[in-house]
Write a structure and sequence with these properties.
The chain is elongated and about 60 Å long. It has seven helices and no strands. The protein has helices spanning 2-16, 24-34, 36-44, 53-64, 75-93, 98-110, 128-131. The chain has two domains: 1-43, no CATH class; 52-125, no CATH class. By secondary structure, it is mainly α.
Length: 132
């Protein structure tokens, strides 16, 4: 993968000088070149997927219902809805029942769970038998 990615960046650098600087192609190439470090991160960290398909599948339900989300009522409401939807999807991705996680997490916060230990309540750390 590293050789292919390096070849792509070499190609983009070579092609950038051949296209109009105002073109959409040049804009896309500059976008990729200025984000090279981030785009290559998956090469150094095996935990990072080569593509975003898993994320795209995960957010598809939220994307489909976006037009139906006018009930949020405000930008703040929309951000809150997006945060909750993200946390619930993160539960699913970590094989945690979203309803169990949400009810137990809210109970612990209401009972005074220390803010310094909030990381333990995140879906990827959630263990009802440990936290419970």
């Amino acid at each position: 993968s590293a050789a292919i990615v390096a070849s792509l960046f070499d190609l983009w650098e070579a092609e950038l000088g051949k296209v109009s600087g105002k073109s959409k192609t040049a804009e896309a190439i500059r976008y990729a070149l200025t984000r090279r470090e981030a785009l290559e991160r998956f090469l150094m960290d095996g935990r990072i997927e080569i593509d975003s398909n898993i994320v795209e599948r995960a957010i598809r339900p939220q994307t489909i219902t976006r037009k139906n989300s006018l009930f949020a009522g405000s930008h703040g409401g929309g951000r809150t809805w997006a945060t909750v939807a993200t946390l619930l999807q993160t539960c699913k991705m970590n094989s945690v029942d979203p309803l169990d996680w949400l009810s137990q997490t809210l109970t612990r916060i209401a009972q005074g769970w220390p803010a310094s230990e909030i990381e333990m309540l995140m879906p990827w750390n959630f263990r009802p038998d440990v936290i419970g």
